Amino acid sequence: MEKEYDMLIIGLGPAGMALAAMGTAMGLKVLAIEKHKIGGECLNCGCIPSKALLKTAVVRKTIQEIERYGLKKTEVPDPHKPFERVQCHLKYINEEKTVKMFDKVDLIMGSAAFVDAKTVEVDGKHYTARRIYIATGTKPLVPPIPGMNTVEYLTNENLFHLEEIPKSMFIIGGGAIGCEMTQAFSRLGCKVILAHMDPHLIPLADDEAAHVLEDELKKDGAEIYNSTAIQGVKQDGKEIVITTDKGEFRAEKLLVAAGRKVALEGLNLERAGVKYDKRGIISDDYGRTNVPNIWAVGDCNGKALFSHAAMHQGMLSLMSSVMPFLSPFKFKYSQYEVPWSVFTDPEVAQVGMTEKQLKDKGIKYEVVKSNYGDYGRTITEEKTVGFVKVMVSPWGKIYGASIVGEAASELIHEFILAMHKKIRLYDIMLMQHSFPTISLLNKRVSEQWMMKKMQNKKLQRVMQTLYRFFAPK
Ligand SMILES: Cc1cc2nc3c(=O)[nH]c(=O)nc-3n(C[C@H](O)[C@H](O)[C@H](O)COP(=O)(O)OP(=O)(O)OC[C@H]3O[C@@H](n4cnc5c(N)ncnc54)[C@H](O)[C@@H]3O)c2cc1C
Ligand SMILES: NC(=O)c1ccc[n+]([C@@H]2O[C@H](COP(=O)([O-])OP(=O)(O)OC[C@H]3O[C@@H](n4cnc5c(N)ncnc54)[C@H](O)[C@@H]3O)[C@@H](O)[C@H]2O)c1
């Protein structure tokens, strides 16, 4: 048995990294075990490479449309080793930034497996710690479609290692990965066909926002098929044939982006007595499993599959280990809204409930909307597609915000803060927003709500009376 640690972390993705960084900052003895690469899915085959590729795509699209910006039409450049650029950025972030953050962590590169509830084994050596944090993330879910094991399909795990942009690609899945990659590949000259079983893109999103995105992806040249059943796939020479209830399609590559499954293989959770199900490791609102010293943090607990949620959970779990007496007030995961953003052009972002969720719950709400097309800044920037839509109670309590448009992923933060701190929509109106930021659309939406309220005849009478009563005599 080696020296005893305070924290033993299995997996160094966003969740494990947040735990390790905070733990060492507190002066705790931290051991981290990572079987692949520091940074996990997010850095190596998720958030970062996907955004790097999207950047190349956005630049090419801007050149394609250069005349819209008052510049002379120019030849549109072909992609030149876009994946090399992606990998180059990953290498830099990994070697120059991430690894250096963990110089105070004892790091073991290898696959961890439980021996019992207090002991973890890597390559025959045993390790223990006061608390063990499982942060092993997820893997791509490959649906049991007939023929799938006969074709060489891509997932996010090998996609960013392609050598060049294929001529054509069929994407199964219309979630965040499917949409972001549809746009990236379409704009880089690939013919993309996306099909998925849900009625609209990004199934969690506001349907109106999803339709705006669908129109834009079609303008990029993609074909989109919603509510589609994929019946089978097979290889035919250099092409993959995909049979669906909407017809047969052929493509050079097939990308599967159909959701995630929890990655617990080889961990031997049974030996530790940790309970799990299809969604992930069963844990409470602080990340505690059924075994008192073992925690499950980030994607592996199936609560919210986002990097920011994984990092946030890491912080809350550690704080609730340090100050359990404050936990019910400060460190419950569910006390904090989980926003999300999809980094397409236009971006889609959400916090709180969508209109559909409000209707399903029978909550009465008002909708107020401000359009990108009605604002000087977005008009001059050629970014007129989209809206900021806020769902509120009659007294301005914010139930949710759905944004589609330029910088939606930035605009959403004002509503996250407002919801968390119970700030009402009229308070956003009372706050100055610098002009002409795109965030000013958030203030506009609250102004519009107030204007709508002022249409009420009774309220008008009250305001007229007050105005006249207080006028200098
Ligand atoms: C293409 C794509 C784009 C994405 N874009 C975004 C985005 O823009 N924004 C966003 O918020 N989220 C995004 N996500 C989701 C995000 O990547 C995940 O939510 C996040 O990485 C989860 O963090 P985690 O620490 O829980 O797990 P992971 O990042 O999956 O890390 C788990 C780590 O555990 C290691 N591990 C597993 N088992 C063992 C073991 N037995 N022993 C040792 N180590 C082990 C793995 O090797 C891995 O490094 C994206 C995902 C994909 C696939
Ligand atoms: N910007 C971001 O925050 C971001 C980006 C990428 C991924 N992610 C995270 O990664 C996770 C995985 O993303 P994802 O896009 O793979 O999944 P998802 O869960 O968001 O969407 C799954 C898609 O696959 C389709 N699908 C599933 N099974 C199918 C089948 N048998 N036939 C046809 N269609 C099928 C669904 O209809 C849906 O469109 C998400 O939970 C998301 O949180 C986040």
Task: Using brief descriptors, characterize the structure shown.
FAD/NAD(P)-binding domain; binds flavin-adenine dinucleotide; 7-stranded mixed β-sheet; Enolase-like, domain 1; binds nicotinamide-adenine-dinucleotide; alpha/beta; 473 residues; 3 domains; 16 helices; single chain
Task: Write up what this structure looks like.
With 473 residues, the protein is of the alpha/beta class. It has three domains: 5-140 and 261-335, 3-Layer(bba) Sandwich (FAD/NAD(P)-binding domain), CATH 3.50.50; 148-258, 3-Layer(bba) Sandwich (FAD/NAD(P)-binding domain); 346-457, FAD/NAD-linked reductase, C-terminal dimerisation domain (Enolase-like, domain 1, 2-Layer Sandwich). 35% of the residues lie in helices and 23% in strands. It has helices at residues 14-25, 40-45, 47-64, 82-101, 156-159, 176-187, 207-219, 269-272, 307-322, 327-330, 355-360, 376-380, 408-420, 425-430, 440-453, 457-469; strands at 5-10, 30-34, 106-109, 113-116, 119-122, 125-134, 138-140, 168-172, 191-195, 223-225, 230-236, 239-244, 247-251, 253-256, 260-262, 276-277, 280-281, 294-296, 340-342, 347-352, 366-371, 387-392, 398-405. It is globular, with a radius of gyration of 25 Å. The mean pLDDT is 97. Bound molecules: flavin-adenine dinucleotide (FAD) and nicotinamide-adenine-dinucleotide (NAD). Flavin-adenine dinucleotide is lined by residues 10-16, 33-36, 40-42, 46-47, 50, 111-112, 135-138, 156, 177, 263, 266-267, 298-300, 305-308, 310, 343. Its cofactor is FAD. Disulfide bonds join 42-47. One of its GO terms (molecular function) is flavin adenine dinucleotide binding.
